[in-house]
Design goal:
Layout (H helix, E strand, L loop, with lengths): L1 H27 L5 H14 L27 E6 L3 E2 L8 E6 L3 E4 L2 E3 L4 E10 L7 E12 L2 E4 L2 E7 L1 H7 L16 E3 L5 E3 L4 E3 L7 E6 L2 E4 L20 E2 L9 E3 L4 E5 L9 E5 L5 E2 L4 E6 L6
Parallel strand pairs: 9-16
Antiparallel strand pairs: 1-3, 1-20, 2-19, 3-6, 4-5, 6-7, 7-8, 7-18, 9-20, 10-11, 11-12, 12-13, 13-14, 14-15, 17-18
């Protein structure tokens, strides 16, 4: 009797192992292929629909239909992994970044923290007597677990490495009985975060709650910023956005002296971001943080 039970357990283990391999082959197929649809049905019948939710750039269900995989207006909190330089960068050079916080898209669908963001240098103009230093770049792909999602993005805010570190460091050190993760921090742009799981308020009004602290960052409504072209909710996307270490109204450059966003990529040329400096050549090292925003014409 014991031998029969062990045989049954072994058989079920082998079946489950083969089913998992099948599910992995589903995720490796092109998003809209007939083969993927067939394998998907078989996989679901064997181990259930949840087997298709793996650490990919976007949940397979969210990328399989004709609608944009990433809704317009979605904020992507990105840490720059590459260094960009008005002297050394070259057109066509690949640049990369990482999503720093889970980005919710719809119930059960999200871009996972750690997903790679890929772009390239479009143009580089070093400083000279007749022109300011400029770098043009694009971020147009999300890549994770063999899945690539194409999109078009613009730049809402960018901050140097030290400003990113400061936003994650409590201004007042912990006392003997304090828990570090419960301490208050200040976002890039001024919003105040009241510890792990706590509310996020504006610097001007501690009673104005604009978000909540979650794992790896902050979820909150994006706000327009007076005196700038940065907008609040766009394209009807009023979902809470993943803001990482940035304020809900963060806009422009922070901690990058004399560098400005000359073109955000919202208008023609759409998706092309231009950074410029009126004071000689410049370099933005890896570790800088960015808030990218998905344009309306992005498609999977």
């Amino acid at each position: 009797m014991k031998k029969e039970v062990l045989t049954q357990v072994f058989a079920r283990t082998v079946s489950l192992f083969l089913a998992v391999l099948l599910c992995r082959s589903v995720l490796a197929q092109p998003a809209n292929s007939r083969k993927r649809d067939t394998l998907r049905d078989t996989c679901s019948s064997l181990v259930g629909p949840s087997a298709l939710v793996h650490p990919v750039a976007i949940d397979a269900e969210g990328a399989s239909n004709g609608s944009p995989a990433v809704p317009p207006g979605t904020i992507l909190p990105v840490r720059l992994n590459s260094t960009i330089s008005s002297v050394k960068s070259r057109p066509g050079q690949m640049i990369t970044g990482s999503i720093m916080q889970d980005v919710p898209l719809s119930p059960g669908v999200k871009i996972r923290a750690g997903t790679k963001v890929i772009g390239h240098i479009v143009e580089r103009i070093p400083a000279n007597a007749g022109a300011q230093a400029r770098i043009s770049l694009q971020f147009d792909k999300l890549v994770s677990a063999h899945q690539t999602t194409l999109l078009t993005t613009n730049l809402r805010a960018i901050a140097g490495f030290m400003r990113i570190v400061e936003a994650q460091t409590p201004p007042i050190g912990p006392g003997e009985s304090d828990v570090y993760r419960w301490l208050t921090t200040v976002q890039v742009g001024g919003d105040v975060v009241y510890g792990d799981g706590g509310p996020v308020t504006t610097a001007e009004d501690p009673n104005q709650i604009v978000g909540k602290r979650v794992k790896d960052g902050v979820l909150g409504q994006v706000r327009a910023k007076d005196g700038t072209q940065c907008r609040g909710t766009i394209d009807g996307n009023d979902s809470p956005q993943a803001l990482w270490v940035f304020s809900s109204d963060a806009c422009g450059t922070y901690g990058l002296e004399k560098i400005s966003i000359a073109h955000a990529g919202r208008t023609d040329p759409i998706g092309v971001i231009v950074l410029a400096s009126d004071s000689g050549n410049f370099k933005i090292a890896g570790g800088a943080g960015m808030l990218l925003r998905v344009n309306a014409n992005s498609r999977n």
